[in-house]
Amino acid sequence: MLRQVARSVFRVAFGRRPYVRVWHPEWLDYRFIAELIDKQGGGRSLHVRRSPGLMEEALPDAERWELTNVTDLARRSGTLATACKDFVLVEVQRSDLPCVRVILEALDHAVATDGRLAVFLKERSSLEDGEDLAEQIVRNVEHVAPRDLSRADFSFAGGNEKRMAWAVLHDWLAVYARRGVFALPSVTWGIWLALRRVRELNLREKAEQDARSPRTHLSSFLMVVKR
User: Fold this and answer.
1) Helical H runs in the chain?
2) CB atoms within 10 A of CB 146
3) Average pLDDT, stretch 43-56?
4) Would you give the DSSP letter of residue 65?
């Protein structure tokens, strides 16, 4: 019961994915995919993801396929009529990157004229420091991007700030967990200050990303392929 109440409060305060509020630690990660779904997601849609996906609530009327293996996806895509979908969204993980082009080619025929086929990879804030996602995609571009690169737009959004923001919020919630209701005034004040700082960082980073100078470490990836 308490967990359900906490979840409801969190959704009211921070919003629902991908339409999270600007003070959500991962607002930057979701802003491009949220804009795309607003533009394209109202028509005939197909949502391919490993269950459960992040965009279930954002695409309530979409046809859903589970991304189990590429061979099965390619076989199943043959059942789709040509140009039967206005929007196809594929959620992937890092381990799927070597197969993304195969997925694109399997689904491309189903996208209508002026439709969009999008691939979204949400980078986890808990990810250990390792290879930058952009570097991995460049290194595997022949497996990720369509053969005609002019058809694709690439976006990276997010960055190290989300790790710091989550850490601050977790610290204040830990204070509340240890001290209970007596700590509520100081915890509320601390969280308010933290969210204000997160909002400032997100807006500053947005300005830099809009200026085409994004930080790609711990950033999420969106590729939109035009028909």
Assistant:
1) 2-14, 27-40, 70-77, 100-107, 133-139, 141-144, 161-179, 184-210
2) 17
3) 89
4) E
How far, CA to CA in Å, does 113 sit from each of 36, 45, 66, 191, 223?
Answer: 16, 14, 25, 47, 18
Say if CB 87 and CB 120 are below 8 A apart. no
Task: List, in order, residues 6 or more apart from 225 with CB less than 8 Å away.
Answer: 104, 108, 111, 116, 117, 118, 119, 146, 151, 152
- pLDDT of residue 84 exceeding 90, the answer is yes
List the domains of the chain with CATH numbers: 2-159+215-226 (3.40.50)
3-state class percentages of the chain: helix first, strand second, coil last, to nearest 5: 50, 20, 30
H/E element, 81:
none
The answer on pLDDT for 214 being more than 60 is: no
Q: Is the dihedral of CA 127, 130, 135, 138 positive or negative?
A: negative
- Output the pLDDT for position 202: 67
